[in-house]
Design brief:
By secondary structure, the chain is α/β, with parallel strands linked by helices. Helix content is about 30%, strand content about 25%. Helix 4 links the parallel strand 4 and strand 5. The radius of gyration is 16 Å and the shape is globular.
């Protein structure tokens, strides 16, 4: 209810994205950047056998994610990595799934961040995104203002910008679902 009241968004779309991780086969490589407090871990099952890299520029957020992994019983599958999304320390085409949940609006340069995320995604891999979009309904703009004043929201991007950037980067089969202030996107690397 709180997310709907402030952001006019349906968080079930976010939880559906995290739940999709539970269907990944053993040995899948997952990148979550920024991992924040570890919300995406809710989809990882104990004993699933993933190699899940939780990356964030903030050591405090990495600590939160580490605690969440312990609480969910999946710490043996989670590797915490301090990393800048604009210069990821991973080789090209590494990950089966790359996700950035409520992240693009935090980055100084969301286009560059997407280039890096797509660079480390394997061909045929899945990209999962959600972000506060600049083309959101006007009634959600107070949240942008509050977020920017608090240093939590950066440039961000519209749905049109993100879809255009992804097309340039060879991302196909884009499923975009705008929902209030947020947009949710799942796609494949061609």
């Amino acid at each position: 209810p709180g997310a709907y009241a402030t952001l006019a968004t349906d968080l079930r779309l976010l939880y559906s994205a995290t739940d999709s991780l539970g269907a990944l086969p053993k040995g899948s490589l997952v990148l979550d950047v920024p991992c924040g407090g570890g919300v995406a871990l809710r989809g990882v099952r104990p004993g699933q056998g993933l190699h899940y890299i939780a990356a964030d520029i903030s050591t405090a957020m990495l600590e939160h994610t580490g605690r969440a992994a312990q609480e969910r019983g999946v710490a043996d599958q989670v590797e915490l990595r301090e990393a800048d999304v604009e210069n990821l320390p991973f080789i090209d085409a590494t990950f089966d799934v790359a996700m950035s949940l409520t992240g693009l609006h935090c980055f100084p340069d969301p286009h560059l961040a997407l280039k890096e995320i797509v660079r480390v995604l394997k061909p045929g891999g899945t990209l999962i995104l959600s972000w506060m979009r600049t083309d959101a309904p006007l009634r959600t703009y107070p949240m942008f203002f509050v977020g920017r004043r608090g240093g939590l929201v950066g440039r961000s991007a519209s749905t049109t910008e993100v879809v255009g950037w992804l097309a340039e980067l060879g991302i196909t089969n884009i499923d975009l679902q705008p929902s209030g202030a947020l947009a949710y996107l799942t796609a494949r690397k061609g």
